[in-house]
Amino acid sequence: LAEDPDPGAALFDFLARTVQASGLKIAYADALERAGIGTDEVVAPVRERVTKAVATLLDRAQRAGAVREDVAVGQVFVFIHGASRAVPTITDDALRAATLRMMFDGLRPR
After folding, report:
1. What is d(CA 13, CA 25) in angstroms, rounded to the nearest whole number?
2. pLDDT category, 80, cuts 50, 70, 90?
3. Cβ of 66: how many Cβ atoms within 10 Å?
4. Is 67 in contact with 58 (CB distance < 8 Å)?
5. What confidence tens digit (pLDDT) does each residue in 7-20 have?
6. What secondary structure, in 3-state letters, does the chain show?
7. At 92, phi and psi to the nearest 5?
8. What does pTM read for this prediction?
9. How confident is the model at residue 73, as a pLDDT?
10. Rounded to an integer, what distance in angstroms lies between the CA atom of residue 77 and that of residue 98?
């Protein structure tokens, strides 16, 4: 995705796929927590790599004018967290897709 000729589409595709795949990841994280294993322990080894990759996608999308310049990488992770908890609970496919598009609109330039 970091080399995609359409940086905006690359970022939004990454976000959509991440949110859509979040149900299993959330269940896994919840199971780890119940077992007394903090998710920070599990995530720590890859956190820096993931943050750099997302920062690259965000920077490219911003330079292409597809994402607001005032969006920071930390906000993208907050977006992912919130959307990952909310969007998968929507059972209607059309409503789920429309909701995700609406959320993406908040990242686009005004």
Report:
1. 18
2. very high
3. 19
4. yes
5. 999 999 999 999 98
6. CCCCCCHHHHHHHHHHHHHHCHHHHHHHHHHHHHCCCCHHHHHHHHHHHHHHHHHHHHHHHHHCCCCCCCCCHHHHHHHHHHHHHHHHHCCCHHHHHHHHHHHHHCCCCC
7. -80, 120
8. 0.84
9. 97
10. 21
